[in-house]
Amino acid sequence: xxxxxxxxxxxxxxxxxxxxxxxxxxxxxxxxxxxxxxxxxxxxxxxxxxxxxxxxxxxxxxxxxxxxxxxxxxxxxxxxxxxxxxxxxxxxxxxxxxxxxxxxxxxxxxxxxxxxxxxxxxxxxxxxxxxxxxxxxxxxxxxxxxxxxxxxxxxxxxxxxxx
Length: 163
Description:
- The protein is an alpha+beta fold.
- It is built from 2 helices and 8 strands.
- Helices cover 15% and strands 53% of the residues.
- The strands form 2 sheets. Strands 3, 4, 5, 7 and 8 form a 5-stranded antiparallel sheet that branches. A 3-stranded antiparallel sheet has the order 1-2-6, with no helix packed on it.
- Strand 1 (31-42) and strand 2 (46-57) form a beta hairpin.
- The N and C termini lie far apart (89 Å).
- The model is unreliable at 17-25 (pLDDT under 50).
């Protein structure tokens, strides 16, 4: 006996596929904002920092950030890059802070350090991408933020060393 396929199954399957595709387009883009840079220390490799960013999830559902890639430019010169692969949960309609480590290596630091301590105003830019996951759904969003930085003068800094 040969069974005829049910006519109802095909439209239901197509409707499910359509809903899955359109639900992906309703995801609002997360907002990534640089909030600061945290100095961590000095090593034989160079100067260690953490780039601090807020990631806002404007969606009505929680999601995980599974990957956050970034580049920091100072006066259009790349001073830091990194890739954060530790999963970070972002609840629905909330913001979390993500700290991403980076090191400015000693080789070639002289130009960058002069800019960071010359007392002048410099342009900075944060560029990158963030991968947002919710179950089987995964999308990558690009971001870019820029501003200005008023560098302190090197002779205005006080450094206390506890030895």
